[in-house]
Amino acid sequence: MNDMESVLITFAQEAQELLLEMENSLLLLEVNPDDSEVINSIFRAMHTIKGSAGLFSFTPVVSFAHEAETVLDSVREEKRQIDDELISVLLACRDHTENLIKYCIRFPKNTLSDELQVKSDALTLALNRNNTVLQESATDVLQNLGEVNVDLNGNWLISLCFKIDAFRMGIDPLSFVRYLSTIGEIQAFILLNQSVPNDDDFDPESCYLQFKMALKSDATKQTIEDVFEFAADDCDINILPPSSQVEQYLSLLEDLSDDETVLLGEMLVSVGVLTENDINRAMQTQTQITQSKPIGEILIDQNVVQAEVVEKALTKQQQIKNKLSSESSIIRVDSQKLGQLINLVGELVISGAAMGLMIEKHGIQEAEEVSATISSLVGNIRDTALALRMVPIGETFSRFRRVVRDVSKELNKEIELEISGSETELDKTVVEKINDPLTHLIRNSLDHGIESPQARLDSGKSAQGKITLNAYHDSGHIVIQIIDDGAGLNKQKILDKAIEKGMVSSDAKLSDQEIYNLIFEAGLSTKQQASDLSGRGVGMDVVRRNIEALRGNVSIDSTDGKGTTITVHLPLTLAIIDGFMVEADKERYIIPLGMVEECVEMNSSEWKIDEVQHYVNLRGVAMPYLKLAEYFNPNKQITKNSRQSLVVVRTGEERVGFVVDELHGEQQTVIKPLGKIFENLQGLTGATVLGDGNVALILDVKNLMNQVHTC
Amino acid sequence: MSITVSTSENKEVVIHISDEMTIYTVLEQKNSLLPYLKTGHTIHVDLSDVSELDSAGIQLLIFLKKQALKIGAEFKLQNHSQAVFEVIELFKLTEFFTDPVVISAEWKLS
User: Could you tell me how many CB contacts below 8 A there are between chain A and chain B?
Assistant: First the structure.
């Protein structure tokens, strides 16, 4: 790989991330169209892509991104209103940008294909349609004062709007003006007499006076504000520091030490450009207005501080934040390197176990303590190494927002996506592989699960359907649920179809669960008409295969008319687990520790064991059991061991007992996949090398449980 | 009544205010002054005996001036007392009222 290529890959990755961020932001914007922070982030995404693409002279990307950027810029400056239509166009632009980048990376020398060019032009046109320019409405103190011929730069600009009852409250504006003239020199004074009504409405006891003045004074902002202390309730006061002092504030801001507070308001107060009151008022306004607006903007709107100063403070704030975050920032690591590390840790775990064995064998007491410390450290290293690959599933989940949005528009359905448990973590390698199956399952739910709005209303539900994505940890597994509140599965239809296809015999007695799970069989679709999305009967079986390839499983449950729940169980990681080692007929087996509930002695005199049905009475509850020795060596004559133990394992609500000869206890287990020949072996997921060089087999508990139930 | 009205000529009225012009008096003063504002008429307000003028007072004067401009009457101030002068100066209203102010030698420097 030469340098250029690696740079290109970085560019592609970065662009991908930016586009993803842009997509999320756009979807957010649909809910909250006025969030300027979000608009900024979209703008930045496009801007950055344009810039990076320029480096590689990907002209099509640059020119297209430029169009989008221009529109976003006008949105950002509130010259253009953002609406659903524009969001849709921007989403399309996002997709198109992605395609353009892909095309440019593949054929850097070629000109754009006609298809892409047409699309570019169409989108550019769509972007510039309805370019409604919003009117500027802001009025400015400076503008008004500017009419008076005074040097405004060196003066405090004070504007006072007295409330109508000010006179009656005993406030005499005159006295403030008089007092102000004692702490400084009033350079200009404007009495805004437009507000004094010139007809019969005039009530001489009401106050209509509004002043703006320029004050030349060396007093601090606090001193000036104190002048108006008594009037604060009856007067809107704005005090804008002199522009000449801006320089001073800027340098003060620059000098703020980095470990000081990172709140914008506090920064501004600490350099004296604002007073506590200014901040409190701005905060009040912030809570009053419905759409969220940054405090800085409010302060500028209220004319208590120059935009320049706020900008400077913001940059400073950003600097501090950057400094803080750069200490805990993210490092990009090649996942191969991580894999290597985890392999090494795996070897370390095995060697550690070997050492522990040696020490035990030779009875070296002094070394035992050291060995215990080392093994706990190795355990920590293992956990940390694995945590490196752990990512929250939220990112994967939020990609489905787009899927749900697009599909529901396409199908003319109203569907809301609810996401919970997005902080649940799982191995990156699992995440990558689960994406496609999940997409398929969700599309299925969208298409088959949720009914059309009319059908929903007819059956007494709200027109808007809901899909819930849920994730949580359960006994060493991650459980992902896709829950819809649609029509549910039609048992009879599935059964009929299955019989028609010869999958089950017509006289078979199947439980509800078994019928539902038929939809994961190849070639079964109950949808009368296949659509673009789903219904061809190809897919659900692929989904199941993919999930099973990850040592996971998928099940489905449904209530007629209420909805369907698809549950996917996946192992958290594919590398190292905490295992529980047992021995049966001189063979060692590993059970994932998270699944082990308890170990009890298998004493035939105390336990009512049903040898034929393979049931044991555990404290009054019937529980199926499996003799591991018999199961893995069905034809071997097994010498009856005097003492046997029962290991109770659990997944979800199900419990099963495994009968073993010996318990060896906890064991860190590095999962080594079994060879291709053993691919179809039931009940085992892999093997591990023990400290003494022997091999132990890792049990696939879920699979074994199903076997227990069927045999 | 703190207002004495003397008509010097037709359509010319001189009104002498011999009281403070503050929040306590403005309502009464407004009611008694407003009727003299008629289109084409000229009102001279003599302020020589106004001992105190507050924001409400100056606001009343501004109102009357504006009202006069609106209906096409003349509203003139004359013989400003020191109190009145100071307020007009402080509020930079000299240009608004356009009346010549005679600064008396007796006024103390504020």
Answer: 66
Percentages helix, strand, coil for chain B (3-state, rounded to 5) are 35, 25, 40
What is the side-by-side strand order in the sheet with B42-46? B3-9, B12-17, B42-46, B74-78
The structure tokens listed for A662 are 């010996």
Q: What is the pLDDT of residues A163-221, one digit of tens each?
A: 778 788 777 887 888 887 788 777 777 776 666 666 667 787 888 877 777 787 777 77
**Whether B67 and A205 lie within 8 Å, measured CB to CB:** no
Task: Report the alpha-carbon distance of residue A500 to residue A682 in Å, rounded.
Answer: 29
pLDDT on residue A293: 64
Pick from A181, A191, A204: which is nearest to B27 by CB?
A204
User: CB of A357 within 8 A of CB of A692?
Assistant: yes
Instruction: Closest CB to A202: pick one of B63, B92, B96.
Output: B63
Q: What angle do CA A18, A11, A38 make, to 5 degrees?
A: 15
B56 touches chain A (CB under 8 A): yes
Give me the DSSP letters along A374-416.
HHHHHHHHHHHHHHHTEEETHHHHHHHHHHHHHHHHHTT-EEE
Q: Is B59 close to A197, i.e. CB distance below 8 A?
A: no
Q: Choose among B56, B62, B63: nearest Cβ to A167.
A: B56
Angle at A402 between CA A330 and CA A38, to 5 degrees: 55
DSSP structure class, residue A260? S
8 A C-beta contact, residue A467 and residue A408: no
Q: Kindly report the pTM of this predicted structure.
A: 0.47
> Which pLDDT tens digit goes with each residue over B30-45?
888 888 888 888 888 8
Among B108, B56, B64, CA closest to B85: B108
Contacts of A559 (CB under 8 A, 6+ apart): A488
Structure tokens at A424: 């649940």
Phi, psi (rounded to 5 degrees) for A583: -130, 135
Cα(A583)–Cα(A188) distance, integer angstroms: 96
For chain A, helix (H) and strand (E) counts, in that order, are 23, 22
Least Cα separation, residue B23 to chain A (angstroms)? 6
Inspect the interface and report whether the beta carbons of B55 and A207 lie closer than 8 Å: yes
Distance between CA B45 and CA B64 in Å, rounded?
A: 11
3-state secondary structure of A91: helix
Q: Is A248 exposed, middle or buried (0-12, 13-18, 19+ CB in 10 A)?
A: middle
Q: Which residues pair with A582 in a beta bridge?
A: A589, A663
Answer positive or negative: Cα dihedral of A71, A73, A79, A81: positive
Is the predicted pLDDT of residue A423 greater than 70, yes or no?
Answer: yes
Q: What angle do CA A600, A603, A606 make, to 5 degrees?
A: 105
What residue of B is the nearest CA neighbor of A185? B90
Tens digits of residue pLDDT in A341-391: 888 888 888 888 888 888 888 888 888 888 888 888 988 888 788 788 788
Q: Shortest CB distance from A196 goes to which of B54, B62, B91?
A: B62
Which residues lie below 8 Å from residue B31, measured CB to CB, with a gap of 6+? none
What CATH topology corresponds to B2-97? Answer: Transcription Regulator spoIIAA (3.30.750)
- Single-letter code of the amino acid located at A130: N
A145 touches chain B (CB under 8 A): no
CA dist., res. A334 & res. A620, Å (int): 54
Produce one character per residue of A478-513: b if its CB has 16 or more CB atoms within 10 Å, e if not.
Answer: bbbbbbbbbbbbeeeebbebbeeeebbeeeeeeeee
- Cα A275 versus chain centre, distance: 38
Start-to-end CA span in chain A (Å): 55
Residue entry with tokens 């010996």:
A662
By C-alpha distance, the chain A residue nearest B37 is A199
